[in-house]
Structures are given as structure tokens and as C-alpha cells.
Amino acid sequence: MPFIKRETAGQADAATAAAEAPQLAALQDFDPDVRWSAARKLGGVAAAVPALAHALKVEQNPRVREAVMTALMRVGDEASVRVLLPYLHSQDAAQRSAAIEALQALPEVVSPFMTALLDDADSDVRILATELVRNMPAGEATRVLGDLLERELQPNVCAAAVDVLAEVGTPEALPALRACAERFRDTPFLPFAIATAVARISSAG
What we know:
By secondary structure, the protein is mainly alpha-helical. It has helices at residues 9-26, 32-41, 49-58, 62-75, 78-84, 93-104, 107-110, 114-118, 123-133, 138-151, 155-168, 174-183, 189-204. The chain has a domain at 18-105: Alpha Horseshoe (Leucine-rich Repeat Variant), CATH 1.25.10.10. The protein has 13 helices and no strands.
């Protein structure tokens, strides 16, 4: 039987890196279609996260930016989440929406970041963060948003949390919801939204 030489781990890594190198370089190509194709091909490649992060910072083409964010989502590790999170602060609505969509697909990886996001000084970020809770397990979502309702002073943030709880909340959310309704009793839209959420959760339970 002929001897078959096996690749070492180092050789395999080197071969993989060599195969990815053209795509990494193509992220900086003048042609947006080439950059888009490269981003698509690097989806799920953890070693490409630094290059994808740089591409996302400088990319102006919306289609390519979306492809880069999708590539990071497909990697789906802590490093890729750390790249995506700052875009929740973007002044560009399209960038924020794309970041939210990518992060919503990674509830388990995003979970450790939720406390910081829901305590962010920017109420708009806290509102966006409630959307990230929507895809979490119902029990965890209820706990996270219940804690938020107990301390949140901005009615619009509470309303966002109530909206999510109306969809995914469990009966454990009811005390926090009722306390929030009492605290904001002079803000008419919020007690009404809470009453609707309480009714939905109660009927589902």
C-alpha cells in the first residue's frame, strides 16, 4: 500500500489562509460587485472578522455593507458581535436596521451584552436593544425586560419593552408590567399598551 502523507494542522491552516487571501484582498477592490462577492464568500470565516470589520468601517455601498454584515452574522462568534454592536449607535437608519437584523439572528452570543445595551446612555439604543430580546427564550426575555421595566425612566423605552413582552413574555412579567403601568399612570399611551400586554400574556398562560 502506498504511503499517504497526511497534512498537519499547521499545513491545513496555511492552505486555508492561502485560499482566503484573494477574497480578503478583494474586499478592497474598486468594483463594488467584486467587494460584494468577496464578502459573500467570507461568510462564516472566523479568521476574516478583522478584515470584515475594517471593510464595514470604510464601505459606502449599501449592498456591500449588507453583505459584510451578513458575513459577520454567519461567523456568529463573540468577535463578530463586537464588530456589529457599535452600529446600533449609527446615525444611519439603514445601518442600524442591518445591524439589528444580523444581531437578532445570534441571541445566544448577544445575550452576555444585553445588560450593557439596556443600560446604554442613549435611549434609542435601549429601544433597539429590546428588539434583540425578541428572539431569546421566553423565560430569559421575560427576566431581562422585567428588570428593565423596574428601573427604566424613559416611557418610550418601556413601551418598546412592553411591545416585546406582549409577544414573548411569560406570566412572570405581570408584576413588573403592572408596576410600570402605575409608575407611568400619567402617560396615557403606556398604561393602555401595558393593559393589552397583560391581557395577552394572561390569556396565553
